[in-house]
Amino acid sequence: MSVTYTVMAQCEVDMDKRVVKTKRTIKRTLVELLATMPFEKITVTELCRAADVSRITFYTYYDDKYALADELFRDDMAKAEERYRALQAENNPRKIPTNSYRNLLTCIFSVFEQRDGIFIHCSSTKNPYLHSACFNHVVRVVENYVQNHRNALEPKYPSPLTAALVCNGLFGMFSQCRAQGMSLRETKKVVFAAFDDLLNSTLFFHSALIG
After folding, report:
1. Long-range contacts of 99-108 (CB under 8 A, 24+ apart)
2. Which residues pair with 148 in a beta bridge?
3. CA distance linking residue 55 with residue 52, whole number of Å
4. Average of pLDDT values for 21-34?
5. Are the CB atoms for 96 and 211 separated by under 8 Å?
6. What mean pLDDT do residues 186-204 have?
7. What is the mean pLDDT of the segment spanning 12-36?
8. 150 and 63 in contact (C-beta within 8 Å)?
9. Per-residue pLDDT at 52 exceeds 60
10. Comparing 170 with 41, which gets the higher pLDDT?
11. N or C end: fewer C-beta atoms under 10 angstroms in the chain?
12. Torsion angle (degrees, nearest 10) of CA 80, 140, 132, 37
């Protein structure tokens, strides 16, 4: 490789690093602002001032604050999927379907427990838009999961309907438990018990032991 191309390649690497750093700063700043104000009241101008970046820089990477929030959701779900693979290797090497689903729920819960993530700010009362967007992201993940694992645990109803039923039920139960003042630990215990009942109900056909 010539010196010219080597220098160009290094410049591209440096540029990529700067882009990653800038986007990370913008995303971290949004999460920090969410701890003090609702998403609807956060403006791009306020976000840029807090992140110490220009509006031009912001709009280079995002169309608006909603696109930024969407990327944060996708980042957190990617972390959940990575943790899911690790859990499967650790405690479910035979890929027993019901255990796989429990690991999926464990990983979904994990994103709600991340203090530096966006899911923790998805209150239906304080941030209704984020709550709705959060629900849609989780439903898509569950729907894809149900569809891709139907050979091991066949849903009685089409994958989209099954995912909607499971997510609406568990989301509602989660919200009610928290509204009643239950700790996150107690809430998880209740939700997992309900999830086990769902998995062992006629909502799913246990057509195979291994998925």
Report:
1. 100/149, 100/152, 100/211, 101/145, 101/153, 101/195, 101/199, 102/192, 102/195, 102/196, 102/199, 104/142, 104/145, 105/170, 105/191, 105/192, 105/195, 107/80, 107/81, 107/83, 108/80, 108/138, 108/141, 108/142
2. none
3. 10
4. 96
5. yes
6. 92
7. 87
8. no
9. yes
10. 41
11. N
12. 30
Place of tokens 């959701």: 73
With a cut of 90, say whether residue 84 has pLDDT above it: yes
Please give the angle made by the CA atoms of 156, 152 and 167, to the nearest 5 degrees: 55
Checking if the pLDDT of 3 tops 60, the result is no
- 77 neighbors 145 (Cβ within 8 angstroms): no
Looking only at the bridges linking them, the beta strands covering 204-205 and 154-155 are: antiparallel
| H or E stretch covering 148 | helix 128-148
10 pLDDT more than 80: no
